[in-house]
Amino acid sequence: MKMYRIGELAKLSRVSPRTIDYYTKLGLIGPEARSDKNYRFYSDETFARLKRIELLKKEKYTLEEIKEKLKHWDKINPDEGVADKLTSIQHHMHQLEKEVKELGPMIEQMKPKQAKHLYSMLTPQSAAVIEALLILLNKGPLL
């Protein structure tokens, strides 16, 4: 397993060493080991976790919300691959929610026949996802 000192991790992940220190103090990440001279060493798993944190920050999650999500994902499965997939799915869901919110007013202005035609043009999977998002946003089903 590759181990990184804080400067190497900072350069690799494109965040400052101060940010890594801050995330460590908050408990978002942690060093895997320390050297005899008390240098902190971080693993590839920490690098992956740092990437997830930065992605969630771009999605406007607070650090406290990110910490809760990471704790939840760690409870589900400590495997990094699963956590990466969850992060990716959550990112896509957030994007879809934004798009549905933008489309909402247009869909509401459609006549029932137009909405039915639109609905028939969508694949069943796409329609189900859109309908589920509309319900989650309290907009009700398409038809």
Fraction of residues in helices?
Answer: 55-70%
The SSE string, one letter per element, is: EHHEEHHHHH
Distance between termini?
53 Å
Q: Can you count the beta strands?
A: 3
Largest pleated sheet: 3 strands, antiparallel
Oligomer: single chain
Q: Estimate what percentage of residues fall within beta strands.
A: 5-15%
Spatial order of strands in the largest sheet: 1-3-2
Which regions have little confidence, pLDDT < 50, spanning 5+ residues?
Answer: none
Question: Mean pLDDT across all residues, rounded?
Answer: 80
> How would you classify the helix and strand content by structural class?
mainly alpha
Rg is 21 Å
Global geometry:
elongated
Total DSSP helices:
7
What does this structure look like?
With 143 residues, this protein is mainly alpha-helical. It has a domain at 93-143. The protein contains seven helices and three strands. The protein has helices at residues 6-13, 17-26, 44-58, 63-76, 80-109, 112-121, 124-136, and strands spanning 3-5, 33-34, 40-43. Strands 1-3-2 form a three-stranded antiparallel β-sheet. A hairpin with a 5-residue loop joins β2 (33-34) and β3 (40-43). The longest helix has 30 residues, at 80-109. It is elongated. The mean pLDDT is 80. Pfam families: MerR_1. It comes from Paenibacillus contaminans. Keywords: DNA-binding. This is MerR family transcriptional regulator.
List keywords for this structure.
single chain; 6% strand; 70% helix; MerR_fam; mainly alpha; 143 residues; three-stranded antiparallel sheet; 7 helices
